[in-house]
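Posting for a labmate who doesn't have an account.
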Amino acid sequence: MKRHIRLNTPFETTDIPLSEYPRPQFQRDSYVTLNGKWQYAIYRNSERFDGYQGDILVPYSPESLLSGLPEGTMVTPQDVLYYHRTFTLPEDFLKDKTFIHFGAVDYECKVTVNGTLIGEHAGGYTPFTMDLSGVVHAGENTIDVVVTDPSDTSYHARAKQATKSGGIWYTPQSGIWQSVWLESVPATYLKDVTIIPDIDNDCVVVKLDKSSDVTAEIIVADNGVTKAKVSCDRDTATISMTDYELWCPENPKLYDLVIKVGDDIVKSYFGMRKFSVVTDKMGFKRLGLNNKPYFHTGVLDQGYWSDGMLTPPSNSALEYDVKLVKSMGFNMIRKHIKIEPLRWYYHCDKEGILVWQDMVSGGEKYGLLYIGFLAFFEYHVKDDSPSQYKKFGRQNADGRAEFERELRETMNYLKNVVSLSVWVPFNEGWGQFDSVRITKEMKEIDPTRIIDSVSGWNDQGKNSSDLKSRHIYFKPITKPFREKRCYVLSEFGGYSLPTENHMYSPDKIFGYRVYRKPESLAKGFKNLYEKSIMPLIDRGLSATVYTQVSDVEEEINGLITYDRKVVKFPIDMVKKLNEQLKIKD
């Protein structure tokens, strides 16, 4: 019988968790967090609401240990989840317009403030904002949030959540799982900014979305010293950069950006860097960083925590993972079918870790014949017509439209992340459709980044993606010598080690190759890199993504255990191996 153990991470939590400013790339002084203790209740959708049942610690899902709810609490597709709290606003907080921001609520919610329905939102992974102007007031206010979540019973984005968890599929969760917070701005304010570094022309382009047609002042600074100051009476400013340093993992140099629109002041930052595909001296297509071939040695990261599930226990926990990966010599993380809080990307920007960003997968039941068995034998299914959609669980037109909407929202949300180098719209055929068209549209939205159109398999041909992307676990790792695209090994490894007292499911474990002793695991990892990876770099291999940062539930193939208490691999050994993964000049 499968036995689950609740595991705590070593990171401290507080009564108001994750209270740091949530948006380092677009920061104001105006900030009130609503994280903390709320009231909650869970009723069947056939039942009427009959009062609250206790307290829950937001932003942790009811299913998580850190929520404070009884073990085994689950919100099913037949349930309704209710939240309620009061909050107090000081007189000097309120300006002309006031907004409430939700980092993520899984899946569909209605938000009521002081008895007024202010909005509804559908989408379990994307952030959203609602206007509270004229609804909130100084003093005591109330907020109610009502949530439903179909989990994997519908076509909505759900990633690895499964009502029947096990193996590579995880316990589903619901409700508020990222920060909730308020800000207030004057009538004239900056709505959005797009920052585009251009190292070829020694400038940075700043595109402004202002609430009214006023002149903006933009300041670029380096450690408090002003490098440039311009006035912009239009929507776009091109700012010359002189004597600047290029951003890269070895030198993650960031510049401060301050934008003033009327009385509204927004602080941001940027790095001068360029992502592209280049050709090396041997004629191989390579991932390019700042116009030079650069090998991406990365690790897969699903962003799960033993006590918070999709939600980290603290900002220091987010920082810990990024710094651990960096200390092991990796220069890249593939964020796997999850959107993190913006503070996680800030740590990658600051520490110098490239990011490959997956979109969150959805769709109805997948045809395992097409996304599993046939793909293993290199048979690629077309994804571009109604006759093919069912094979990928994409026969529902509303589901396809929803995916494309959330893809655009994700790209806009993360557009200013300095370290984000590669977009990954589809993974292993999960909910894949029209990938050639979607990739083309993504390039039009963001021509500054590389696109790994279909990570793993069901590749749609040479015109569909910048990369030829492979997942190899059970076969010898090879690289076709004549492959004309940039060739990347976007998943491999997954070597596992059972670690007593640090496993979620001691009676049932999953891994691609299981070792029983730490020294055997280390030897197997070393042989994998030295005998399978290193020889292929001179043959055109341009990137690797090892599976994975941490154990997740039954999966025990992490560099560290699910509770982050045991690092399974010798850090110095992994670092020395990664330092050898370079493209020769």
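Reply:
Got it, the structure tokens are right above this. The radius of gyration is 24 Å.
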